[in-house]
Design a protein that fits this description.
The protein is α/β, with parallel strands linked by helices and 298 residues long. Helices cover 50% and strands 13% of the residues. A seven-stranded mixed β-sheet has the order 1-2-3-4-5-7-9, with helices on both faces. Strands 6-8 form a two-stranded parallel ribbon. Strand 4, helix 5 and strand 5 form a beta-alpha-beta unit. Helix 5 packs parallel to helix 6, helix 5 packs across helix 12 and helix 7 crosses helix 8. The structure holds octanoyl-coenzyme A. Octanoyl-coenzyme A (CO8) binds next to helix 12 and helix 13.
Length: 298
């Protein structure tokens, strides 16, 4: 049944996401296919009509941290691209220097009401569902550091190319903040680097330099910094040459169990997050981590 849905083409894998509240975050369902590019405050999308490839540049200063507003913009953009039959591939990259994305905006998890935390977490789930379940070929062009939620965004993609710069790092470092990556972060990581690497990585909150990330398969390719986007474009051409339905059905087979697990536990997952993050001890850990970030700067 699911495979048949995927066979229907563009709506296939995305169509499996029956739990994804597409309408909620997407006030407009109009296509952007007639335009070569679109921009909002925090995102620039260059859509090449001839190749069917869109490049989404994140530019939310200073570090592309994923606030509720930014997540909402990302979700709206992903929804539009997914519905656009002229868009078959998506490259995600950053316009901010040195950083792909600093992950979830810590300020969204600190000192906020339970209702607001719940709304924020729903948006995080929504972004993951849209990216992990996308029918498009998705490539992360990681041109800077990519901790926590930034790493999550990257591993939802089909392929990862990272700038070969030892000053950058990538990983799910949640434990370093005193918080715990939820099961769907963990499973996306397991699906990428295997159980043992994930276990060590998550328990120790490891951030990997590009060469180490390549070694464990957290990224697929390293290139000089100024070639990240061109390498992503080249790789995209190869992926788009694969018969589309076969590729989409295969992607669906690989990802469906993880996606369905979140879909059937979505509300409970929100409640877990809210009760965990609003605990005084967790708030204290977040406060200390933010102070540490400031001290590092001084
Ligand atoms: N959220 C909010 N603000 C941030 C974040 C963030 N994630 N990251 C950095 N900032 C702020 C800094 O505090 C600083 O603010 P200010 O200018 O006011 O002092 C500003 O952005 C610039 O930061 P830096 O000076 O540190 O910039 P650098 O270019 O030197 O370094 C880095 C960039 C490497 C990204 C660095 O900022 C960093 O390591 N940031 C922290 C990244 C991080 O640990 N993120 C984890 C977020 S949690 C997450 O994504 C998953 C949560 C899952 C929750 C599960 C709970 C159940």
């Amino acid at each position: 049944m699911a495979l048949r849905a995927a066979l229907r083409g563009k709506s296939g894998l995305a169509g499996l996401l029956s739990c994804s509240s597409h309408g909620r975050l997407c006030p407009s369902s109009s296509s952007i296919s007639q335009r070569n590019n679109s921009s909002s405050a925090k995102l620039i999308v260059d859509h090449d009509q001839t190749t069917g490839v869109a490049v989404m540049h994140m530019q939310s200063p200073p570090v592309n941290s994923l606030s509720l507003d930014f997540l909402t913009e990302i979700c709206i953009t992903l929804e539009k691209l997914e519905m656009d039959k002229g868009c078959r591939g998506l490259i995600i990259t950053s316009n901010q220097p040195k950083v792909f994305s600093a992950g979830l905006d810590i300020l969204e998890m600190y000192g906020k009401s339970p209702e607001r935390c719940g709304e924020f977490w729903k948006a995080v789930q929504e972004m993951w569902l849209k990216l992990y379940g996308s029918n498009m070929v998705t490539i992360a062009a990681i041109n800077g550091s990519s901790p926590a939620g930034g790493c999550l965004m990257s591993i939802t993609c089909d392929y990862r190319i990272m700038a070969d710069n030892p000053r950058y790092s990538i990983g799910l470092n949640e434990t370093m903040l005193g918080i715990v990556a939820p099961f769907w972060f963990k499973e996306t990581m397991v699906n990428t680097v295997g159980h043992r690497n994930t276990e060590m990585s998550l328990e120790l909150g490891l951030l990997y330099k590009p060469a180490e990330a390549l070694k464990i398969g957290l990224v697929d390719q390293l290139v000089p910094e100024d070639q990240v986007l061109s390498a992503a474009t080249q790789t995209m051409t190869k992926w788009l040459a694969i018969p589309e339905h076969a590729r989409q059905i295969t992607k669906s087979m690989m990802r469906k169990p993880t996606i369905e697990k979140l879909c059937s536990n979505r509300e409970a997952d929100i409640q877990n997050f809210v009760s965990f993050i609003t605990k005084e001890s967790i708030q204290k850990s977040l406060r200390m981590y933010m102070e540490m970030l400031k001290q590092k700067k001084a």
